[in-house]
Automatic annotation (TrEMBL), chain B:
Keywords on record: Heme, Iron, Metal-binding, Signal
Location of the Cytochrome c domain: 44-141, 165-263
Pfam family, one: Cytochrom_C
Protein name per the record: C-type cytochrome
A molecular-function term among this protein's GO annotations: heme binding
InterPro entries, alphabetized: Cyt_c-like_dom, Cyt_c-like_dom_sf, Cytochrome_c_Oxidase_Subunit
PROSITE patterns: CYTC (PS51007)
Top-rank taxon, per record: Bacteria
Organism: Candidatus Kutchimonas denitrificans
Length: 514, 264
């Protein structure tokens, strides 16, 4: 059955009785919102004027968060330049050495420096209690509370020496929904900056986020991703709840898989709602960027490594490029315009499963391009992106599957406006829209007159954050489905379409950095 | 302040002066005279200063030096200090008389040290680069401010030993000058006038918490505190006490000892 996991599957994968679970979570949330911030104060010992304790770079430079962030985690133009320059202050190339202990002396340590641990070690903790309201309960009668905390990130980042920097981000996600607890390196990269001359060329190598310099980067969302409840090991995938993240980043294609070699693995079925390619949270690869003509213009080129979706998969290197223009328009006003292109050869296979037998079409090339813009004006930070996806024409070995109907193009739009209402208050609003491509209709014999499979999706979300101290945000958020009810074709079970099933997804949470 | 408190402050002060003075000085390379490679002021160095300004300063101070860069409003939503508007010609961190322009060395000190909490110290720029950016910043200043060579307020004498008698005398001066009205009886920035303080641009401005020297925007060495007392912080609520304390320079040093003792 399409997109509809059974209750038993979710119970098998770690759910506990809701009241017991909620009590534990409530207690843990209380603990987090009181003791951990206090421990943050104690641990940092920061004394940065009017602001409170803040993570590593702010500790190092004795600055408030807002020197680099509109509100954490979004970067303001100064923070962007700090990031671009390999965690060195804009205009400098000293490796941040001026604030480190000089080991000095003759011999191999001459000129070497040692930073304090708190100047390159930071952590972020996010926890949410979520509740989804749905048109049709296809998964469980239980309230959808998450385990606690949702995500803990530990960062090691900084400049090792002049123009050489590093970034490690580990992520711990405790057992939640259908997943096992896991710790993994989310991103790991070596950063070389100012090759040739200042900002001429910079390199990142490792597990990197390609969209770091895009006007609407995948990371640094004010509204943290709400993870999907889905199974992607088999085809068709089962999506009990779509994720909540900027839909422009998503794959936007129904009916694709990563190829027969990956059958049974997580990610075999490409979920139309997962962030993908240029907008993936991390890809293994390298990128080169710089500002050879000054502050107005940034270029970025890169490659991301993955496997082809052929019968005998090979390594593929997806090239991508980005251009960004930065304008200082006037008092308190800055504008960024950026565009990118990403190409993946033989990246996916159209797939159908008539009578439960998985049948693959020919591998398709996948192209993605998008434009983004960001405007700062006084207390407002407005940004948005439109991203298009395009795949080759779909070819199946023979009838009747050739009679299935496919759309080779998908479109996603995400717009967000953030307003710093007050030093302690923040309001954000985001609109997401997706016009997906991929599988439109099964062969007529199976589909009949039933609605199309690749239905549009659209959510309007809002978040209100309160910062009792600058590094702790308590928030309430809700995302409303703007589109009406649509059923899947009867041949696919006839349940509510996963993009239309949630009416409201709400959460209360805490986001802390220390 | 009772005797016990003063005795404790004296003891802790004596011990901590030894522990903290060295590192504190090491972190604040603001002995400007040490930087001898000062380039000449000419079109080329000013143009080079503009290039550096556009890389390092423009995001807060704006293209025209008006303190209106795109980051400025996000820095402090509800209270000052906001990035300096150079075209106003009002400068907090000076060694000169209130209302005068700062010296180049004052600007060099601010660029080098930054402002705790609000502006990073750009000692990653080479000294020559810092001088050049200062030459460019000075092009924003009002012409009438540059007509006269600013006169430096002399720092008379040297820091006094921070003994009980000195701290007690400093406490008396603190009371006489009504410092407590803004900074509070215990120096925690909670005086009765503190909630109503504003800067010249109408932004609420909290009074400095004197128990946290690392947050002192004009520096926390004894000489820095002395300088702050006599020059004031133009544009802010801290007035200059140079006239009131003329001939009482020793009392200023006692007051400095008291201020430093508040954090120990």
């Amino acid at each position: 059955m399409w997109w509809t996991p059974t209750d038993s599957r979710l119970h098998e994968t770690g759910r506990v009785r809701p009241i017991h679970r909620f009590a534990l979570q409530a207690a843990a949330l209380g603990l987090t919102t009181t003791i951990l911030p206090m421990s943050g104060f104690a641990a940092t010992g920061n004394d940065a004027g009017l602001e409170g304790p803040v993570p590593a770079f702010a500790r190092k430079y004795n600055l408030s968060c807002n020197v680099c962030h509109t509100r954490e985690p979004r970067l303001n133009p100064f923070g962007q330049r700090f990031q671009e320059n390999g965690y060195q202050l804009p205009g400098t190339e000293d490796g941040g050495t001026s604030l480190k202990t000089l080991l000095g002396g003759p011999g191999p340590l001459d000129g070497a420096t040692l930073d304090e641990v708190t100047n390159f070690l930071a952590a972020r903790l996010r926890a949410e209690v979520q509740q989804s309201f749905v048109r049709q309960k296809t998964v469980s009668e239980d309230p959808d509370f998450r385990s606690f905390p949702n995500v803990v990130n530990v960062f090691f980042a900084g400049s090792a020496t002049r123009n050489v920097s590093f970034y490690f981000e580990t992520e711990f996600a405790p057992p939640a929904e259908s997943e096992e607890a896991k710790v993994e390196f989310e991103r790991v990269m070596l950063i070389l900056t100012n090759l040739g001359r200042y900002q001429l060329a910079n390199i990142r190598i490792g597990k990197i986020d390609p969209s770091a310099f895009f006007a609407f980067p995948t990371h640094r969302q004010q509204m943290n991703p709400i993870f999907p409840v889905a199974e992607s090991e088999e085809f068709p995938p089962e999506i009990a709840r779509i994720p909540v993240l900027p839909m422009a980043f998503a794959a936007k294609m129904f009916g694709l898989t990563r190829g027969s070699e990956h059958q049974g693995e997580e990610g075999f079925s490409i979920l139309p709602f997962e962030p993908f390619f240029f907008n993936a949270p991390a890809t293994t690869g390298a990128m080169l960027w710089g500002r050879p003509l000054g502050e107005l213009f940034l270029y970025q080129i890169g490659v991301a490594q993955d496997e082809t979706a052929e019968d005998e998969p090979g390594v593929r290197w997806d090239p991508y490029g980005l251009l960004r223009f930065d304008f200082l328009l006037g008092p308190y006003t800055a504008l960024q315009l950026s565009g990118f292109y990403y190409y993946a050869k033989n990246a996916a296979r159209p797939t159908l499963a008539p009578m439960g037998n998985v049948v693959f079409g020919e591998p398709v090339d996948w192209r993605r391009w998008g434009v983004g813009a960001r405007l700062h004006y006084r207390f407002l930070d407005i940004y948005g992106t439109v991203i298009w996806d395009d795949i080759d024409d779909v070819v199946f070995p023979g009838p009747p599957l050739t009679l299935s109907e496919w759309d080779t193009q998908g479109l996603g739009v995400s717009l967000e406006a953030d307003w710093v209402i007050h030093q302690n208050w923040f309001l954000g609003v985001r609109w997401d829209f997706m016009d997906p491509g991929g599988l439109v209709k099964l062969p007529p014999l199976l589909q009949g007159e039933d609605p199309e499979i690749n239905q549009d999706a659209s959510l309007l979300g809002g978040i209100l954050k309160f910062y009792p101290v600058p590094n702790v945000g308590l928030y309430a958020r809700s995302h409303f489905n703007l589109l009406g009810s649509v059923q899947f074709p009867a041949a696919l079970g006839g349940d509510e379409h996963p993009a239309r099933n949630p009416t409201v997804i709400s959460a209360l949470g805490v986001d802390m950095a220390f | 302040m009772d005797r016990q408190r003063i005795a404790w402050l004296t003891l802790s002060n004596a011990a901590l002066v030894v522990l903290t003075t060295g590192p504190a000085l090491a972190q604040m390379p603001i002995e400007v005279a040490a930087y001898n490679d000062r380039p000449p002021v000419n079109e080329q160095t000013i143009a080079e200063g503009k290039r550096i300004y556009d890389l390092s300063c423009v995001h807060c101070h704006g293209t025209a030096g008006r303190g209106d860069g795109p980051v400025a409003y996000f820095l402090n939503r509800s209270f000052g200090p906001h990035p300096r508007n150079f075209t106003d010609g009002v400068f907090k961190f000076r060694s000169t008389y209130s209302g005068d322009a700062p010296t180049d060395e004052d600007l060099f000190r601010s660029v080098t040290k930054g402002i705790p909490g609000f502006m990073p110290g750009f000692n990653g720029l080479a000294p020559a680069e810092r001088w050049k950016v200062i030459y460019y910043i000075k092009t924003f200043l009002p012409e009438d401010l540059l007509e006269f060579e600013p006169e430096v307020v002399e720092i008379v004498g040297e820091p006094l030993p921070a003994n009980a008698a000195s701290i007690r005398r400093g406490y008396e001066v603190y009371q006489q000058l009504n410092c407590w009205e803004c900074h509070g009886p215990g120096g925690q920035g909670d005086g009765p006038k503190a909630p109503d303080l504003e800067d010249d641009w109408g932004f609420p401005l909290p009074s400095a918490d004197l128990t946290r020297p690392s947050s002192f925007k004009n520096g926390s060495r004894p000489e820095d505190i002395y300088r702050t007392i006599v020059t004031g912080l133009d544009g802010g609520a801290m007035t200059s006490f140079v006239d009131m304390m003329r001939g009482r320079e020793e009392d200023i040093w006692h007051l400095v000892n008291f201020v430093l003792a508040l954090s120990r």
